[in-house]
# Entry
Amino acid sequence: MNAPGGAALDALRVDAQQRHRDLKARISRLSDDAIALILSGARSHYAWQDRPIPDGMIEAIIDLTLAGPTSMNTLPARFVLVETPEGKDRLARSLKAKNIEKMMSAPLTVIVAYDLHHWTHLPRLFPHEDRRHLFDGKPDYSEDTAYRNGTLQGAYFMIAARALGLDVGAMSGFSNEIVDQEFFAGTTLRSNFLCNLGYADETALFQKLPRFSFDDVVTRA
# Structure
């Protein structure tokens, strides 16, 4: 591991702290419209325009996704971009019948997966302290960490896509076992959920479903 130390590490910390102060000085919160775009007014979509995703857009979304926090910076999520007819046919084998057309009509479907051996990358991602011993020989802890943090990254991915102007439609109506056999056989990757991306055809939307109130979901301790 080639982690900085001493004065070099102190300088990096001071720089990181100042960068955050400068950011909060420039912008203290998102606008109401920006919040609506990514969360409060966002919708899950099931139909899509015949409009391609611009070059470089997915790369930008992944870069934003990777900026989000994960436990020990493990970054366990992995993404398979399913966009060819052959790839779509393979993925369709795993889907419930009602979801096949939703996936087939989307310009891009992403398999959001996670790597059970994420911890082997810690020397690169968490260089200041070797924590591989926390995972080595502990498959249950490794998978729990991978699944939880990979799910977080899947949510970051959806928010990043919305923030950059795309629409999303996450799906869980499929067989993880079939996806894993079809796409991840012989690897340490496991599927989590699917996410369709593109520009939505809003004519397929229905009214937004009810949500809980604050008091329904919050207690204080």
In short: The chain has a mean pLDDT of 96. The longest strand covers residues 189-198. The chain has one domain: 44-204. The domain at 44-204 is CATH 3.40.109.10 (NADH Oxidase).
